[in-house]
Amino acid sequence: MSEPVARKPRFPMSLLQRRRRIRDRDAVIYGVLLILALAFPAAVLYATGSNALISQAGHAGTYVLLAIGLNVVVGFAGLLDLGYAAFFAIGAYTYALFASTQLGSSPLHQSYHLPFWLMIFVGMFVAAAAGAILGFPTLRLRGDYLAIVTLGFGEIVPQLSYNLPQWTGGINAIGGIDSPSLPAWITGPWAGASNIAIIRPDTCRVLGNSTKFAPCFSFGFDPIAFYVLVVIMIIGAVILVGNLHRSRLGRAWMAIREDEVAAAAMGINTVTTKLLAFAIGASFSGFAGAYYGASFGLVSPDSFLFLVSITVLVMVVLGGMGNITGVIVGALVIYFVLNSVLPALPSTVESLANNFGLSWLNVQNGDWPGLAQETQRVNFLVYGLILVLMMLLRPQGIFPSRVREQELKHAAVQEEEPEVEASHAS
Amino acid sequence: MSLPDVGFYVICALAIIGLAYEAITQPTAFVQISIFGIADGAMYALVALGYTMVYGIIELINFAHGDVFTLGAYIGTAILGFFSFNEDSFTTVNLLALLLVFPVVMLIIGGINVGIERIAYRPLRNAPRLAPLITAIGMSFVVEGVMFLWHGPATVHVPDLLPHGPGFETTIAGVFIGFKDVFVVVTTVILVALLAVFINRTRLGKAMRATAQDRDAAQLMGIDINRTIAATFFIGALLAGAGGMIWGLYYNNIFYNLGFRTGLVAFTAAVFGGIGNIPGAAIGGLLIGLISAYSDSYIGSKWTEVVIFGILIAVLVFRPTGLLGMRVPEK
Q1: Interface touch A143/B59, C-beta < 8 Å
Q2: Predicted local distance difference test score (pLDDT) of residue A417
Q3: Best of B141, B151, B311 to disrupt the A interface by mutation (most A CBs within 10 Å)?
Q4: ipTM above 0.85, yes or no
Q5: CB distance B318 to B7 below 8 Å
């Protein structure tokens, strides 16, 4: 600021270096993540002897998939979607309805048991269609109106599943959902282990005749099998989204995000392009929903509330909107904080208080529910503070995308310029 | 008239025909439901005004507004704790408590909302539009978190201060009207009238209208933008604080995430009336209150939320400028 003349020539050079540095950084993050993903199950089994952590990692994988999908909508195309969990619900219910006995007790009186490998694509397609149907009339609206429409949609979908118990089981949820299964000859490298899935003669239904069973390798509730599946799905999603990002469509998305009017003037069909972003984003959510239904074996409307939409949005924004590696890291960090750090906080605080001779704080006393209880209540507050501080301190996220970082830098320079001129004038 | 407009009018006409049928076949029940709807709608209108004022001036959906409304009821209950009043009959102490608690709660909530604006929105005034929206959601969680820390997940009882019981209610032709219903509507009308006078007659009100119209031009005319925006948040919160207090006194039960649903419904009301439009928000609030009362009785209360958010989506799709809004060119 004090020496604007000396600062300016350095600018283009540092820009180039930053671009190369970020490309290297992404490659390094991908490598580290892949190695961690491969080493994680073995390390956990060796260290703890139980696969509880692997099961949790599989669940975290669902959120990674969701975050990658929402990143297409929010990060690439710049459309704010506050009801993303609705598409997640649609994917999960699509799988749950056609892979359990639920439809037998519905007005259809006929239950279906379609295979997971088919339904995961059906779920994807149904969610994408729902996204397109919702998006078609609303994408003409301005940005924050779209946010409200998606918010309303996100409230309606869980409410519908509460209110239509004959179809969705209502508050009782749909249980007993089929696990994915593979033909018996694919047993995988894990088949020999004693404590995980083996070939079962009677868990897989023959396609087309749901009363006959054939021997197969069923996933059952084996966390390792699901972990492998979700890692493969994430790798597939990353490759797909990465290619989309570099395609003509991806460039059109970013043009719309930057300036919709200018993009339209350049010949981009903004409605179709935005609709594609919306539908593709929703399809990832449907994909993740089908996986979620299969891995939990239970689909309940409680798992698709507003908080889920917000959590995924926070993952995308914290990780770095528009940057796939950032979003993956953001999803893992937020998942870890929400599911490991915050639940452990009350007991940690309690034992800390005991150690420091403040054990009277732990006793319930009138309105004071005890320190552990009170700490448990703090979750909401912490979550809100994370959101606010994140946007105030580092709006570009942990690992911002290349383009966005330059944009922010550029904007900062632009803002400084008038003052520079003013100082010259004086 | 375009095709979406026709669709919108057809839906409206069908709803009105259905209601007219109910009104003719069972007039007493219909009037009774309408009265409850108007009382509810008056409270929604108070919250909706805050949404619409803030949106009108900085184009931000202030998600924290619904929680600020709930916080008003919480603070009011805490203040009422200092009085030894009588819940069964109306005494002078009750009257004094009521007269004191409203201005105090309104001022405290106004101050808190200005603080929220200062911390979470002002630093992001020139940031991309997504940023303040996310901090708004964050502030909503923070305010909810504070109330959760304070009283936990249970519902909090608000003392039944307003005159009630046999002496303060009447039945006209089978329709029950309590003092509370009248109180809610009268208070709301007074507050909205004061707001209208303020916006249209005072210097600061003029500054607000100018800032909403064109912020840069207003600044060039010598209007202090930051002060005007802070004043907007303050006044919006005055109404929300009064609304929260009225809600608490009317229903006598509040809970920490009351503001989430109420806020969304009130926001729907603001959109319904045409966001940014002050009389629109008041009328929208009233209409949404009536619609949710009719939906509660004629469709079933579990469908009310679906109906309201369905209306929200339908209004945005068919008539994004709301009932009273003007067409605004895209910037």
Answers
A1: no
A2: 47
A3: B141
A4: no
A5: yes
